[in-house]
Structure formats: C-alpha cells, structure tokens
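New to this. Explain the following:
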Amino acid sequence: MSKKLTLIALIVFFLSIFLTYFAVQYHRFLITPLSKTEVIHYVLKPGSSMHRLVDDLQAQGFIQHPRFFYFLAYSKGATNKLKTGEYLFDPGTTPDQLVDQMLSGRVILHRFTIVEGWTFQQLLTALQALPYVKHTLSQISSEQVLANLGLPPENPEGLFFPATYYFSLGAKDTDLLKWSYLLLEKKLNQEWLKRASDLPYKTSYEALIAASLVEKETAIPKERPMISGVIARRLEKGIPLQIDSSIIYGLGRHYTGKITLDDLRKDTLYNTYTRKGLPPTPIAMPSLSSIQATLHPDGTQNLYFVAKGDGSHQFSSNLAEHNRAVQIYQLDRRYPIIGKKTKGCQSLWYLSKQMKSLFCQLNEVNSH
C-alpha cells in the first residue's frame, strides 16, 4: 500500500511540476509580444482556417509555440470565429491581443473621398483608380452602373453625396456608390423637410439641380445663399438663369476652357441662356452647404451677379447696377482702354469697326 501511495505521490509531484511549467510557459507566451519592433500585416481570407493563420505566423517567425496558440484560440472559443479581413498588429501586440482583435474584426479601414463639385464621370474615374476594392464597373454605361446598384435607369449626375467613406479590403466599388447614394437621399430628404416656404421647386430633385448650380458657381460659403437667391428669383420671374457652369457642362468635351459667343448660342439641354428654367439634371454633386443654401436663399432682391476676378462676386438688383459692375470687374480688367474711355457702345466712335463690334457683343453677354 505504501508503494502505491509513493507512486501516486510521485505522479502527482511530476504532474504538478509539468502543470506548473506549462502554466509558466503559457503565461510567458501570452504576454510576450509577437514582435517588439515590427508591424505585422496579415490578411485572413474567407475560408482560411486557424491552422493557416498559425502556419503563416510561424513561417514569418512571429510564433515559436504553435501549440500554445491553438490552446489559446480554443480557450477563447475562437477556433472558427475569427473575422476575415486585412489586419495590422502594432509592435508589442501579444498573442492574446491578436486573437481578441481578430475576434472583434478590427480590420484596416481604407478611405475614399468624393469631392464636392465632382461630376459623375470624375467620380467613376477616381473610383476606378482606387486600390483595395473589387472593381465591377469598368467599361459599362451610366445606366448599367445604376442597374448594378439596383436603381432606376436615370441620369446618375448629382445622385451621390460628397463625403469620406471608409471600407475594408474586398469591398466592391458598387458598395461605395450605394452608401453614397443612400446618404445623399437621407441628407436631401432631411433638408427638404426643413426648407423655406415659397420656393420655386416642386420636388427635392429640382432643389438638388439648383444646389449643383450653386456649388459650381461659388466656393465662398457666405455667397451660396446669395447665388441661390438669384436663381430662385429668376425662376419665379421666368428669367433665364444664364449660369455659365451649366453651359460648360452642356458643352462637355467640346468646352475649350473659355466660353465663346458661339457657345452661348449653342442650344444644348443645359444652355441656361437659350432655355428658361432649370437644366434637366444636376451638373455636379453639391455639398450639404449648397443644398442648405438652395433651400434657404437670401432675402434680397438681387437678380444678377458678376465675378470680380478674385473668386468672389458682385451682386446687383437691377440691370443698370449690373452693367456698371460688369464694366468695373470684367471690361476694365480685361480691356482697360475700353473701360476707361467708354460708357457704352454709342461712345466707341474712336475705335475700329472690329473692336467696336467685339465690345458691344461682350457688353451684351455680360449684361445678363
């Protein structure tokens, strides 16, 4: 009996030594960083197993005791629950922290910014050049793009909200567009419900069109309600909007960098000189501030504005004031001889016939 007790005591003794050794080594494993100086970049692909993760980390020299790692994963119930994706583990990350991070799915988030005032084509170009996404929209029409998003086959211009979007590795380009479209719908509907009374817009889409004009006409925040006020009052009075940015959009690739008199006379769907009312679609993606300014225009009586040449505009309530502003900020600056010596076409007797014709045409264009 004493021999049996002695044997049992020896077994217990050696077992306790083994367990103590295991506990000490396992604890050391848990608190020892995988790397003290190196950032670990790892992509856990869909369908990958725990064995694949351990093999990869061991092959890169980050794990010396794979059995301890399996025990850790099993004890946390993480064997089949690690989230797939792209991970960065900072220097000093322990095995315990790595498993927790992969259980919670704290993956790398990449970002994509849609810039205020972009056209849909500019958005697609930027999206096609974006790494880390699955590209599904290359070489297809705008209508097909919308179809892939599950949206009606309409013109996509202006239907995406300019903002910064965060996504993980493997997201589709259609995912980003869908998020942007839904955010635009949400923001536009929220602002539409808070709109001022007596606006000339029957639908939120019409307001979106006007907001895109505001976006392209000025980059100065305080001018946006002033621009939107001019647009709203012209619509109410049935006056052509005469928005240059709309002309440029309608010209498309035929725009040479400077609007000519022929451009103003070319009757496109977006020519707001030859056609009254709003263009048929937005001409860009308006910012939230442009949407808000459109739905809350200023309370002045201004019907005209002209660029000063420094990014700002001079606003006028009548044609006489506007013509004076054109003379000061456009003709005097571009044609100083004409600006100093004339007050109108009738006093151009000393200029050549060709120069007089040019000045009169410019005066006619800028008087709107």
Notes: Strands lie at 40-44, 85-89, 110-113, 164-167, 304-307, 313-316.
